[in-house]
Amino acid sequence: MAATTTVKEHIWIPLPDGRRLAARMWLPAGEGPFPAILEYLPYRKRDGTAPRDATTHPVFAAEGYVCLRVDIAGTGDSEGLFDDEYSEQELSDGEAVLAWLAAQPCCDGNIGMIGISWGGFNGLQLAARQPEALKAVVSVASTVDRYADDIHFMGGCLLSDNANWASQMHAYQTRPLDPELRPDWRAAWVERIETLPFMAADWLRHSRRDDFWKHGSVCEDWSAIKAPVLAITGWADAYVNAPPALAAQMQAPAKALIGPWEHRYAHISKLEAHDFHAEVLRWFDRWLKGEDSGAEALPDYRTYMQEHFNPTKENKPRQGRWIAETAWPSANVREVVHHLGQQGLLQATADAGEAVVSNPASLGAVSGYFCAGMRIDNELPGDQAGDDALSTCFETQPLDAPLELLGRARVRLAFSVDKPVAQVMARLCDVAPDGVSQRITYRGRNLCHDDSHETAAPLVPGKRYEVEFALNECAHHLRAGHKLRLALSTSYWPIVWPSPEPVSLTLHLEGCALILPERSVAEEVAAQAPGAAREYPTYEAEVTRAPSGTSNTYEEADGTLVLETFDDYGAAIDPVHGMEVGSHVAMRYAIHPDDPASATFTSQWRFTFARGDWQVQVDTDNLMQGDRENFHLWRKVVATEGPAEDEVCVKEWRESLPRDCL
Q1: What is the pLDDT of residue 1?
Q2: Confidence (pLDDT) at 2
């Protein structure tokens, strides 16, 4: 690849107000101008994403695209200060970057955006603002609704990753600027640390779906996106709902692709790698180059229909097959109502009687990590049988024939509770004849919220309520002889932060049902599955400490259940600029089964940087805990310089916030 492309390791992009953003550019061989691909992130193009960037942008540049990787303001070596994710500053700066790139002699004015997670988000968000040069988007592991389907809330329930992700971003944003590029690095570094937003508190302050979350949620106006969108994710990822929603709702061309992947680009998946490059190039060749690449003729929805395998927290390939739906929504999928009854899932008529849902606050021990792909390993959901045993379950008889699910199952509940704040967690599981239970999909619902999640109110104990909510997207084939199980619980730790008190939830079964998206086809269309991953260039860094990770669950003397994880991302010397960068993180989740208010999350991040005589270390500590009325958050940063670890900046933040029906 190196022989056919030119790399500009560092360029400055001027903004209208005088600030400059740091960027890296790959240029194709030959005479331009060329179409361009932009990736716009806060993760440091100089070291943070450099290894991943090396596997993508040189490939695209070799195929005739100018590629630009830009650091968001206040991150990496870019000037300015960081304010929040997907802020007005970030998006307006993004529009300026697109205009700047379109005006460069190397660019023909046609630009596509690509990105996973953050870059997938802001690609959609910028498309909704309709900048002239943005002609197509490849959005990976993203969301269309920042409140409903991000790392903060789920169904109005607070995700523990609101604190976890905030702690990671805090660690990321306290990293130093590179002295080779920023002579003012030390003063700018201290200013960044001193002015960093306390994001865990800022996000928690907006516990309902208000204007804060509507900003950047493209579902507010589907018609605003005019650029064609290819939306990709994996079933092991947390972000599974956006691709089918975009395919179903967008007026501009949109295609959905969901494979057996975690939170990674498909070509570097640890579960099963596929040819991500071909998917991207086919899309951009059509919409940026105007070629007949076959992108328009793709089925609306291509996906990997999973099957039962021995679920384990370790990375391992999925089992299943590729399928496709020409149109989405599909006539091949129909909703079938299964009533919840004393004898299980009954398809015929509603059943009378009651069932009680009450479980230890620690339920969820095999839930896995919310967003698999961020840790080294040991992050996938395992056999759910132990959690099922603590839940209230409704299941079918062993199936006489296979059953396929494609879409979003819905749960309808009539209920009453004994406490003013309550939530319910619903899991669908594929149970093998030997009893091994594999999670198909899940989702929580804050029972204090209305359907819009804009209003919340305490529940009246003993009063009858009704609620209906959709679980996350799924594609799953249950074999004959297996059972489908609906497991209900009032907690799901550590993925979801529990309600403040133990809750007993009474189901009034005549009003309870499971609505399944059952798929049946007379003849399958060609799946057009992604091919095996092609060869791609890699970053030949000198590894000075190999990555490693551990995960340990144990019970303390008083019965508190603890999950401790340690991820050492290793250390390596960059082959281009010679900086050695290392990092690790330790996380701890703890809860007493009898006291949901005892839930606690802590994390400790360390980053080290060195080049020649220059040496920097940054340690960040984070804590979230609560009581029955409030949440309490704390964080600290210690930044040091030199072999003696002389303190450069030490700062602490504390904040307490009311639980607001959480």
Answers
A1: 41
A2: 41
